[in-house]
Design goal:
The chain is α+β, with helices and mostly antiparallel strands. The protein has three helices and five strands, in the order βαβββααβ. The protein has a five-stranded mixed β-sheet with strand order 1-3-4-5-2.
Length: about 140
Amino acid sequence: MLRRPPPRGGLLRFRAGDAAELAALVLAGTKRATASLARDYPDDGLPRPGDHVVVVDGEDRPCCIWRTLQIEIKPMREVDAAFAWDEGEGDRSREDWLRGHREYFQAQAQREGFGFDDGIAVVFERFGLVWPAELADAG
C-alpha cells in the first residue's frame, strides 16, 4: 500500500513503517501491482502506461524504478484474485487484500474526513521493474 500516490512519473515513498518491506517485495519480484485511492490524484495526475516511477526506501534512497504497464480505475470491491496476488502482500488472497485495504483506506478516510465504503474508486496499477537492470523484468 502506498503512503501517497506519486505524481505522474514521479517519486514513490511507501509508508515509513512499510518502506523496507514493500521495496524488498518489489525487488524480489513478488510485488508487481499497487493500489491507491483515485481521490488522491489531481485530475491530470493519474498514472498512465509507460510512466516511470522511482521507488525510495524509508531513508529516501532510490531502490528501484518501475514502468507502469496497466491502469484500471474501478470500485474497491471489484478487485480480483489475480490483482491481489500480483500486489504480493499478506497471504496474497483477495480476502486478505480486501481486509488490509479496508483497514488502511478507512484509517485514511478518518484522518482526512471523507466517506469510505467498498464502492470507493481505486487506481489498480500493474508495473514492471526496469532498474536495477540485473533484476529487471523481461520485455
